[in-house]
Amino acid sequence: MKRKGNLYENTYKIENIISAANEVCRNTKNKREVNRFKNFRCIFISRIYNDLKNKTYKVGPYNEFTIYEPKERKIVSQKTYDKIINHLISRHILMPAIMPKLIEQNVASRVGMGTKMGLYYHYKYLRLCKQKYERFYILKCDVSKYFASIDHDILKQKVEKVIKDKDALKIVFDVIDSVEEGLRDSVI
To answer: CA-CA 20 to 30 A from 2: which of 45, 159, 169, 177?
Structure first.
């Protein structure tokens, strides 16, 4: 299996930082924080650039709260600054390394895929099962606390198998280890 290299330098290209900042600002619900970021946009972008270029980025604290509708869920978020860096890591380190290894039917977080494509596969395989089997069962399940149950060491071993860039591995491992156990939904 070929490992990907030279991934880290794409994270601190100014055009990539600006693109990630625009995407995060567009999709963040906390408008007060987005406005604060927009007011000091040049400062934040230059700080992100310097932290990534000089390899001095430290993962910021997580804001945790619980919601109870429709069911009890723990929500975790980060400041806009950290969200932008997470987007850069995802788009320019993880996606180029991991996406070619995924099966076609994995529609999560993939450009051009999503709910519509997921429904397409659902109906496609439902139709195939109806043609092939007289009687069949479909298991619908939800893994409780899935992200919290992910083992850091196993995840890091799997990431090392697809990424050889030492700087890229370091920042990915810093994000993974930014929580005590498992992963946060907002991490990577």
So the answer is: 177
User: Are 85 and 78 contacting, i.e. CB atoms less than 8 angstroms apart?
Assistant: no
- Domain extent for 165: 8-176
CA distance 168 to 173: 9
What DSSP line would sit under 59-101, residue for residue? Answer: PPPPEEEEE-SSS-EEEEE--HHHHHHHHHHIIIIIHHHHGGG
Report the C-alpha gap between 134 and 162 in whole angstroms. 42
Tally of domains within the chain: 1
Longest dimension (CA), the chain: 64
The pTM (predicted TM-score) of the whole model is: 0.84
DSSP E strand boundaries for 8-160: 63-67, 73-77
For residue 182, tell me if it sits in a domain.
no
What's the mean pLDDT in 44-58? 96
Rg of the chain taking only CA atoms, in angstroms: 19
**Residue 183 covered by a domain:** no
Q: Which of 4-8, 33-37, 83-87: highest mean pLDDT? A: 83-87
Angle (CA) 102 156 188, round 5°: 65
| 172 CB burial (10 A radius; 0-12, 13-18, 19+) | buried
6 alpha-carbon distance from chain centroid: 20
Residue 108 lies in a domain: yes
pLDDT band for position 188 (50/70/90)?
very low
